[in-house]
Amino acid sequence: MHQVKSLTTLHLLVTLLLISFLGLFYLSSNDILFLVNLSIILISIIIMNFFSTSRNFIILLSIVLLIGFILLFYGFFRRSSLQVQIDFVIQHIFLTASLIILWLLFAAVKKIQEDVKSLRQRVQELEKWDSTTNVLMPSEFLNRVNVISTGTKRRGETNYYVSFTVHSLEHTKDSMNHVFSTSILQAIRSEFDFVTKTSEHTFLVFLQNTNEQGCNIVINRLFDMLRNQLNFIEIPVSYEIIPEEEMDGLKRKTNGMVHSLR
Question: Which of 10, 64, 171, 243 fits a 20 to 30 Å CA distance from 194?
Answer without folding.
Answer: 171
